[in-house]
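User: Earlier you gave me the apo prediction for this protein. Now I'd like the version with S-adenosylmethionine bound, so I can compare the two side by side. Same sequence as before, with the ligand SMILES added.
Assistant: Got it. Here's the input I'm using:
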Amino acid sequence: MINSTERKPYVSYLSKKDERFAQKFAKQHGLKFITPRNLRISDAHKLVIWISEGKISFQDLSLKNSKPFKLNYLNFKKINSESSLLKKCFSKKDIGKKVIDLTGGYCIDALEISSMGFSVTAFEKKTWLYEFTKQCLGDISHTDLKDSSQRINFICGDSLKLANKFRDHEIAYLDHMFEIKNDARAKKEIQFLRNLDLNDFDFLAIIKLIEKKFIKKIIYKSALHTDTKSLINLNPSRVIKGKAFKYSIFHIDQEAL
Ligand SMILES: C[S@@+](CC[C@H](N)C(=O)[O-])C[C@H]1O[C@@H](n2cnc3c(N)ncnc32)[C@H](O)[C@@H]1O
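And here is the structure of the complex with S-adenosylmethionine:
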């Protein structure tokens, strides 16, 4: 799918001594380096990656009172909540199976899935986002979350090309960027990703992945109004609806393919 809506964040520095690191990071990840001054006066978007003492943080300067942020997974209460919608997508039959997270992003969902005891292989194709998330996962100090994070194998690359190497994984999780009508309640971390791009997932490739015959179950997070059948040409066996999105669960009869 051609992505016509992608915006790339700028890379800058918080302290002059980090200027060279910021320039290097921008170059490595194909992003544009900008000085803090030029960023302030620029008319373009204000999504920025700050490089400071080798650490990465994000900020959307267009938001009033915004501050640079890293991920504190403890702020995402659903990870440890026993009754979260995502947890309802798994059943006793899934115990012991491995999960592929096709759209890793910040790995909040991957961490929630791994907190249930699953081994998760998560992919993120944006190299700069992969670096950020990898750093944030590495910074986890809370014991329970640390154990869960160790069950995540986080890989940089296109899941739809690489998943085939993980044929012992039977469950695929998919949360591509989608538009939510009333986004005001989304956390700043999620808003940051949403302000970058939408429609970033190639559904034809997921059909090809299903045809590789190892995925037996797909959990697909989408907007409430999404017609999932038109995207992956399968009827969900279950749909779990929240206020702003839904999870559709597909069981794939590999014999019938
Ligand atoms: C909505 S975010 C996922 C958020 C994630 N569920 C979380 O808990 O943080 C979607 C992410 O999927 C990534 N993505 C989209 N297509 C991908 C692909 N084919 N392979 C790997 N990552 C992909 C995007 O770059 C984006 O960061």
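For your comparison, keep in mind: Residues 10-60 form one domain.
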